[in-house]
Amino acid sequence: MKNYNKFLRHLLTASFMIMGLVVSAQHQGMQYFRPNDKRGLNIFETTKDDTTSFHKLKVKVGGNFEQSYQMLRDKNMASPMTAPGFTGNVNSLIPLTNGFDLAMANLNIDAQLSDGIRVQLVAYLASRHHEDTWVKGGYIQFDKLLFLHSAFVDTLMKSFTIKIGQFDVDYGDQHFRRTDGGNTIYNPFIENYIMDEFATELGGEIYYHHKSGLFLMAGITNGELDPTVVAATKIDSATGKVNHYPAAFQGKLGFDRQVTPDLRLRLTGSLYKVHSANSNTLFGGDRTGSHYFYVMENQNVANGTTISNENDYSPFSGRFNPGFSEEVNTYMVNPFIKYKGLEFFGTYEHAKGRTIAETNQRKSIQYAADLIYRFPEHSENFWVGVRYNTLKAALHADPNDITINREVASAGWFLTRNIMLKAEYVHQEYKNYPVQNILNGGKFYGTMLEASIAF
């Protein structure tokens, strides 16, 4: 017992020393960094603005927490149907009531290792999709390469950024504005797009920034959320050969400039391509889940589903995944205009792909438009906004395209730069689904409330 108490005292002393160092580091700025709080709004790729001096190693420990209250209802017109292994009608909807959803939380660790070299690690502490803690990813970012002791390289790096690790694939601009588990601070709405573009993959990206506002990104990744070194055994239906796992490529060309003190203009075009994969998840890589709980879901299927590390059997309620797990060819165009407190963010996306069992590619086309007004001038602590999101897609083994439409209205308040409250009304409709599909004639609608903390 005496030795145990001595050990405990030493452990507590060391813990307080470490906490003191971390708290001290919290007040030091990070270089080429997107803040986790309100200051990170409308920041996309980090810029080459060198506004923070490096003095020594800095560590910042932060977090994101959110709690939502749901008041949604749903309905459908699908034909009653039974399925092997399940009891009852698998096309009936789970009865919904008002209540709190599962709270979600993220842990963020950022470290300034050296002048122009920064590391980020993010972990999901609690989420709808996974009950246990998962590492989202981590990467190292180089904005300077002073260790090479080359004046020529130093000059080059004034225009270049290099990112290496497991990170959000920089496809499109929406992933900079989306809700990510406990991190909802950048999103003026509760949920993301109907077709949610988000995946963490292992690879590297290099950016070129021009002083005019033009920039270019080229990247290469493994094309997988879950890497594997096991040789493929499945036959690709399109080629008739054993599947293989080549690299995925992504690129972005854009212009982003503060034209006047009141006017900012940004326009980007992005693409992502992989011709073969073990299981690509560009449209299903979210390990946290939708923030609309249990809409358009069936209780009988839920009761008959074996759950291991998932909190519920269907964590992506309200979203559409085209299922392009084998081949993906997609591009996106995003305009962003901010004039004083008025913001417009738009999306046009054209995605084609297939599963390993398909010989031909299917197509999904998505449009979205966000109009946000932030006020009062200078602080912009309040906002009101509307979003229209529509998707048209071809389902596997179905000759008819389906359509999903979503209209959203939101309002919010930043109590401080770290604390946010928001509310929204959402209405979503499903059209042209087969009568045997649970989404036939489906719709959900209602109000959501959410509180969020970020630091």
The strand line-up of the biggest sheet is 1-3-4-5-6-7-8-9-10-11-12-13-14-15-16-17
Radius of gyration: 23 Å
Helix content: under 10%
Secondary structure class reads mainly beta
The number of helical runs is 3
Shape: globular
Assess the beta-strand content as a share of residues: 35-45%
Distance N to C terminus: 40 Å
| Strand runs, count | 17
Described by strand count, sense and barrel closure, the largest sheet is: 16 strands, antiparallel, barrel
Q: List segments where confidence is low: pLDDT < 50 over at least 5 consecutive residues.
A: 1-26, 307-311
User: What is the N-to-C succession of helices and strands?
Assistant: HEEEEEHEEEEEHEEEEEEE
Mean pLDDT: 91
Can you offer a commentary on this structure?
The protein has 455 residues and is mostly beta strands. The chain is built from 3 helices and 17 strands. Strands 1-3-4-5-6-7-8-9-10-11-12-13-14-15-16-17 form a 16-stranded antiparallel barrel. The radius of gyration is 23 Å and the shape is globular. The model is unreliable at 1-26 and 307-311 (pLDDT under 50).
